[in-house]
Amino acid sequence: MLLKGKTGLVTGAGTGIGRACAMRFAREGAPVALLDISLENLEETRRLILSENPGAEVLCLTVDISDEDSVAKAVEKTAAAFGKLNFAMNNAGVMMTRAPVAEADSKAWERVMSVNLFGAFYCAKHEIKQMLKTGEPCSIIFTSSVGGLIGTPSASDYVCAKHAVIGLMKCIVCDYSEYGIRSNAICPGQIETPMWKSVSGDMSPEAYAKQNRTQNPMRRLGLPEEIAAAAAFLASDESSHITGVALPVDGGHLATNATYFNWE
CATH assignment of 8-252, given 3.40.50.720, 3.10.180.10, 3.40.50.300, 3.40.430.10? Predict the structure, then answer.
C-alpha cells in the first residue's frame, strides 16, 4: 500500500476527481478526511469507500473553502482525528463564467477566484501549519488544469486562478522544501466528471460522444481514476524527490496543440 502510515485530506471530495482521489487514497491504506460543501455528496463518497474497505478510516467535514475560518477548523479537526496530517489533495473548485474578458461579470469572476485561488491558498496555509508538526515527509497536491498552462477563450477567471495555483505551488516549494514538505500540481485535461458534463451543455448523446473524441490524440476523455493514480503517486514516498512540478494528465492535449487538430 502506497500510503500506509500516512493520513490525508481531499477537498471537493464529494464528486468527480475528488471522490476518485479519496477512494484511491483509502485503498492505498491512508485514513482520509473528505471535505466538501455538500454533506450529501460526502456521505455518498464515504459509502463507496466503506463498501470497498469496511475498515477504512473516513472523516466527513462540510467546508466552504472560500471561507478561511471554515478551512482552518476542518484542517485542525483532521489533524486531531488522525493525530497528524501527511498529505493533502487541494482539488475543490468551480468552473468558469463563459464570457470574453470585456464582457465578464465582475462578481462572478471574483467568485471563481475566491474558490479556485483563495480557497487553495487557505487550504495550503493551514495544512502547512499542521504538516510542520509531524517531523515526517509531507506532500501538498493541487488540482490545476491544462488551463493553468495555456490560455482558453472566454474563461479568464478560471484560467487566471489555475495559473496562479501553479505559482502558489512553486512558492511552497521555495518556502518549505527544507522542512520536508513537497508540493506539486496536477493539470488535468478534459475529464469525465459532472463538471465537464455541465460545461458541455444540453448536447445529444451523439454530439457529446463526438466532442469527447476530439479533445486529444487518445480520442477519449480522461477518467477521474487516472487523476487519482497520479495523485496517489505524488502523495507517496515513491515521488520523494519530485516537487515543484505542474504535471499534465491530458491524453496528449498540450503536446499536440489539440485545439487545432481534428482528432475525429
Answer: 3.40.50.720
